[in-house]
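fyi for ur records
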Amino acid sequence: MRIPVHPPRRDDHPGQPDAAGAQWASGDAVGEIGRPGNVLGLLPRVRLTDVDLAPGDAVLFFTDGVVEGRRDKEMYGEERLRRLLGASRAMGAAGIAEAIVNEAVAFQSGLPRDDIAVMVLKIPT
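which gave:
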């Protein structure tokens, strides 16, 4: 299965902050899709990248409220998110999404300062 997912490059829309990102999990591998950028569908122009997916793979779309969540001066971060996605990839889409939201909120002592939105696509086995 192939899906196009690539947010616009930041320099395509100067002055607008990165608002979202995408990651994938396949077997033991977890990685970023494209570059962080604006939400797909929000702006009229996007650059797309094809991603080959296999049964059991998961794709995660998320807003910056996940990775930019703070506890004191420490940010939740992309690496922590990649580790969680890798650890939860055997779950269904709803379980992965719930695990990510729960951990991102808990990291911020239950008081997130930004919106947190995730969408998980899980390819059936």
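The CA atoms of residues 2 and 52 lie 5 Å apart. thats all i got for now
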